[in-house]
Amino acid sequence: MKAVTKLPLRCVCSCYGRLFSVSSSVNCSENSQRNECTASPPKFKPKRALVLTKMSRYEYEKKMCQSETEEGLQRYLAERGSDYEGVLIRHNIHHSNLKEVKETLEKEGIEMEIVQRFEYTPDAIQWADIVLSAGGDGTFLLAASKIKDRSKPLVGINTDPARSEGYLCLPTKFSLRVSDALERFLAGKFKWMWRQRIRTTMTGQHANDEPLELHNQELQYPEHRFMEHVAEHEMYKQSSESASDLPPRVLPVLALNEVFIGECLSARVSYFEFSTDDSISVKQKSSGLTVCTGTGSSSWSFNINHIPKESVKEILKITNEIANCSCHIDSEAVLRKIASEFNNSLRFDPGEARMVYTMRDPVMNGIYHVAVPRGFANRMTIRSRMWDGCLAIDGGVSFKFNDGAIATLEVFSEDALQTVMLT
Q1: Integer Cα distance of 67 and 80 in angstroms
Q2: Among residues 170, 116, 171, 181, which one has the least CA distance to residue 142?
Q3: What count of other Cβ atoms lies within 10 Å of the Cβ of residue 320?
Q4: Confidence (pLDDT) at 215
Q5: pLDDT on residue 10
Q6: Which of 97, 210, 348, 385 is 20 to 30 A from 59 (CA-CA)?
Q7: Cα separation, 48 vs 93, whole angstroms
Q8: Which residue in 188, 189, 139 sits closest to 168, CA to CA?
């Protein structure tokens, strides 16, 4: 990576933050919760682009396979019931689209670096005017996790839309025509869009530990397994210094989708105290806690909370019996409509500066009771009571979160991720 000096600024806007090589008339409000600022028209001329490409399954399997020959890889995949030809086809499709990204950037005279996740470093990000992710949503989340500058745009290119929905990437119609999409973007035919992210501040024995990179875990430690009592033994060796006596640390990763807090071993009950905004702290046991943004409200949080029409039918049937109603429980159209209305209500705008939390399978008995297992919050505080707890961000990195550790989750406008909407 070449040595870099910062580019001169052409304009500074209170809404954009710092935008390099930008010239536009802006119409937006700093305290608005809308997720986009309109510019008429935005003129964004990056000089350097960093492309983060995913590791295709073919590349992954090649690293995991002990054989260096294609025949050995075919046997390795066949033993696991996988189709070598199919894996190779998907690999070629990805690299064909990646080549189109490269050629389009070169055509526009933009200096470019293509990196995989191991080379995706803060220095590489600082070097670039713009970051592009070439893969699916997982690659986009990995790219977003290390971008700290509010004015560093991230554009997602779905390089295999037939196999990946790419919700966070450019729409499929553009991903199928990568060169057209990039040319449209570089011509200023887009709107800026900011996605809010969650900032996590942690206090406790492991607040300053390096995170476990879940993206790299299998490659680096293929035989690693979480051991049920490792952290339990470790805690007896720690000093008696309480979490409140230790200095807080803002974690180096921002959550674009969600933060998950729970036991590393999913079969164990997660135990912690939590409070929202100015509420009183409550002890609870569950299968873990998810806290998501507007972006994440269409992902894991949605899948946890959505209901099928069969559940709607059962609820309406009980309603008819108890309240002497006559709900149309035999109308498929009505059931689908009700389910759809409820499920759509679970999503909220990615630009809204708030979080939604969900207690997964909360324990409800005479001792533990969560009055509001799902709701919105501007600030959340969680104190761990777990032996082998973790705090995972966007499924990409995990921090130890054991007994006494405290995590505070908040959303700040300066942490928002700058993305685009093509017009």
Answers
A1: 15
A2: 116
A3: 14
A4: 56
A5: 32
A6: 210
A7: 25
A8: 139
Asked if residues 139 and 34 have their Cβ atoms less than 8 Å apart, the reply is no
Strands (E), 246-287: 249-250, 258-263, 270-276, 282-286
Given this model, what pLDDT does residue 67 score? 80
The SS3 of residue 383 is: strand
**pTM across the whole model:** 0.82
Residues of the chain with pLDDT under 50: 2-34, 36-40, 218-241
Residue that has been written with the tokens 């995991």 in this structure: 64
Using alpha carbons only, what angle is made at residue 154 by residues 117 and 190, rounded to the nearest 5 degrees?
Answer: 150
Structure tokens at 78: 């066949």
Cα gap 171→160, rounded to integer Å: 12
pLDDT of residue 55: 92
Long-range pairs of 273-277 with CB within 8 A, sequence gap ≥ 24: 273/382, 273/383, 273/385, 274/380, 274/381, 274/382, 274/383, 275/380, 275/381, 276/357, 276/375, 276/377, 276/379, 276/380, 277/377, 277/378, 277/379
The 3-class SS string of 33-64 reads: CCCEEEEECCCECCCEEEEEECCCHHHHHHHH
At position 371, the amino acid (one-letter code) is: A
Q: Could you tell me which residues are beta bridge partners of residue 27?
A: 38
What CA–CA distance (Å, rounded) separates 23 from 11? 7
Q: What is the C-alpha separation between 183 and 185, in angstroms, rounded?
A: 5
With 0-12 CB in 10 A as exposed, 13-18 as middle and 19+ as buried, what is 367?
A: exposed
pLDDT for res 369: 80
The pLDDT value given to residue 35 = 53
Q: First vs last Cα of the chain: how many Å apart? A: 33
pLDDT at 178: 80
Nearest to 312 by CA among 295, 292, 337, 291: 337
Which pair of structure tokens corresponds to residue 237? 């060796």
Q: Are 351 and 195 in contact (CB under 8 A)?
A: yes
Token pair, residue 159, equals: 């390089």
pLDDT for 40: 47
Task: Write down the pLDDT at residue 205.
Answer: 75
Name the 3-class secondary structure at 70: helix
Amino acid type, 318: I
